[in-house]
Design goal:
A hairpin with a 2-residue loop joins strand 9 and strand 10. By secondary structure, the chain is of the alpha+beta class. The longest helix has 25 residues. Helix 12 packs antiparallel against helix 16 and helix 12 packs across helix 18. The strands form four sheets. The chain has a five-stranded mixed beta sheet with strand order 8-7-6-9-10, sandwiched between helices. A three-stranded antiparallel beta sheet has the order 2-1-3, with no helix packed on it. Helix content is 50%, strand content 12%.
């Protein structure tokens, strides 16, 4: 018995130390797991959810101390009772998880070692047996060292645990066991090897064969039988390979843009998984470092599971100069244990990851195309104008009431807002936008890429484009901005074509078409030197030929024809 108690004592102590330290390294992650258990559909202890982090800290520090105390034989009776009560509670939780399947990972070893619910239960069952041996053979637990030294070691362990826990809460886990650790490539983490095992399902087919119900089992193939199929059931026999990174998307306006963004060579990502409980004091640091990153030539985005309405309100309140994209909340919690947190990605590889407390320590290089003279005040105003410029246009272009309703609800608009006089509302917005943009254009020239950044450089162009009577006043300024790289030249080409068409002159790049409900139908406005238009389009930055563009504009059945101004005039007659 003495030796059995001695083995159990060391084994249990070391296991508690390892398990406790792993969770102490990431108490925020353990608190997420506790919230799963506290949820209404699991233990229905939702009143404990606000205290999950505090409970997590207390539990993991206590777990570490119990490991130290049993190894050194400190407070023998108290320690053994504590171990027994703790393992009984955890054995119940893991058994409940295994039977119900409501929590698929107990979090016993954090992200360092994933155990299935039944594996966790069997592990706790073994610990329960060993702790019962300790409980029965308490008299054989002989203390190591003197009482004073034991007390000192326990006290030092408590202090060290508190300091370490505070450090990882104020920064990030000292050791990152997650698939989003520094050096990991997200695209590679999402890939499935060609030889990876696939899920295997057993199919139980039920047939009516000559009035008798017959069951036939296969692994997917339809049975070779002449009976009438009644139904079938499937059972997972073997789970397939699941990549370490899944459920990862970067969405904006309902489109997943993760493929392109993960190819960005210099991408700064601000993660704020939930704005309802984000650390608001962190956004001063976030604003400062992201502004510097934008000036240095980095692309900056935010990622959140909160609504676009909430993220736009946060941007406005804290004067943030980047857009938020949507991503699954659980995924964002896994990426970084900070709300908000900051990452640097190089073509999908995580190079830096920082808590908001350390955001100002983000190492930034001055890249080619850096914009040290960005005017963030003007950028924010133009970003707001760009949003307003499209406020009702999507609704106006909707082809049905159902589509308009879906668009309106996605924008958070009420039925009164997405119905009624949409053009009247948009024209009022356009008029207000024009007043501001004209003041900027007349006082400081075109606000292009070097002044407000690439993503905002088109805002003033859209405002003038949507007020065609103003195009003659600013076309030369737009041309100069396009030639100097301050504005995409393809937009300049579009504006020049629109101006020429409004003047009843031939366009140059073939960007303008007309549609009539009468015999005139659809056509591309006449083009000057049509034989070379595709070369001009390519030089201006268009990826489509005039023929391809015409099909996109008017439909697959449309065939582009070269027209002259005389042809158009005859059609009008």
């Amino acid at each position: 018995m003495k030796y059995l108690v001695g083995f159990s004592r060391i084994f249990v102590g070391i296991l508690f130390l390892i398990s406790g330290f792993i969770k102490l390294n990431d108490p925020v992650g353990f608190s997420f797991k506790l919230k799963e258990y506290f949820a209404a559909e699991v233990l229905n202890l939702e009143f404990l959810i606000p205290f999950a982090l505090l409970i997590a800290v207390v539990v993991v520090i206590y777990e570490v101390l119990l490991g130290v105390m049993i190894i050194f034989g400190y407070a023998r009776k108290f320690t053994v009772w504590s171990l027994l009560l703790m393992i009984v509670f955890f054995t119940f939780l893991t058994f409940y998880s295994a039977v119900t399947g409501k929590v698929t990972d107990c979090g016993c070893f954090g992200d360092a070692m994933k155990l299935t619910p039944w594996e966790s239960f069997y592990k706790d069952l073994v610990l329960l047996v060993l702790i019962l041996i300790l409980f029965i053979g308490q008299k054989h637990i002989q203390p190591f060292l003197t009482k004073t030294l034991r007390r000192g070691i326990v006290l030092l362990s408590f202090i060290a645990s508190m300091i370490f826990c505070y450090y990882v809460l104020m920064h990030l886990p000292a050791i990152d066991f997650r698939p989003y650790k520094i050096g990991a490539n997200i695209q590679e983490g999402m890939s499935v090897p060609a030889d990876a095992p696939k899920a295997i399902y057993e199919y139980t087919w039920k047939f009516d064969v000559d009035g008798q119900e017959t069951e036939i089992k296969t692994f997917g193939d339809y049975p070779d039988t002449e009976g009438e199929l009644i139904g079938y059931e499937t059972k997972l026999v073997q789970e397939g390979y699941e990549p370490p990174i899944h459920d990862f998307t970067i969405e904006r306006d309902g489109e997943d843009q993760s493929a392109s963004l993960l190819e960005e060579p210099n991408l700064i990502v601000v993660v704020a998984y939930s704005l309802s409980n984000t650390e608001l004091e962190g956004y001063d640091n976030i604003r400062a470092i992201t502004n510097q990153a934008i000036k240095n030539g980095y692309k900056v985005i935010g990622m959140s599971a909160s609504s676009q309405e909430e993220t736009e309100a946060l941007k406005e309140k804290y004067e943030l100069n980047f857009d938020f994209y949507f991503c699954d909340e659980t995924t964002l919690k896994t990426i970084v244990r900070s709300n908000p947190g900051v990452l640097e990605l190089q073509k999908g590889t995580i190079m830096q990851k920082l808590h908001w407390n350390d955001a100002l320590e983000l190492q930034l290089n001055e890249l080619e195309g850096a914009m040290p003279n960005l005017d963030f005040t003007l950028k924010r105003r133009l970003d707001s104008i760009a949003i307003l410029d499209q406020r009702y246009r999507k609704l106006i272009m909707a082809s049905s009431d159902e589509e308009r309703k879906a668009i309106g609800e996605s924008m958070g608009l009420s039925p009164d807002e997405y119905n009624g006089d949409l053009w009247g509302r948009q024209m009022a917005i356009d008029k207000s936008n024009l007043l501001f943009v004209e003041r900027v254009l007349n006082s400081q020239g075109y606000p292009g890429k070097s002044v407000v950044g690439e993503s905002t450089s088109t805002a003033a162009w859209y405002v003038i484009q949507h007020n065609p009577e103003k195009i003659p006043d600013y076309l030369d300024m737009m041309k100069a901005a396009g030639k100097n790289g301050e504005l995409p030249f393809r937009l300049v080409a579009m504006m020049e074509d629109r101006y020429l068409m409004n003047q009843n002159e031939m366009q140059i790049y073939g960007t303008q078409g007309m549609s009539y409900s009468d015999v005139r139908g659809d056509f591309i406005w006449p083009i000057k030197d049509p034989e070379n238009v595709n070369q001009r389009r390519k030089e201006a930055g268009f990826s489509q030929t005039i023929e391809e563009y015409a099909v996109d504009l008017f439909g697959e059945d449309f065939e582009y024809k070269v027209l002259t101004l005389d042809d158009v005039k005859q059609e009008e007659q």
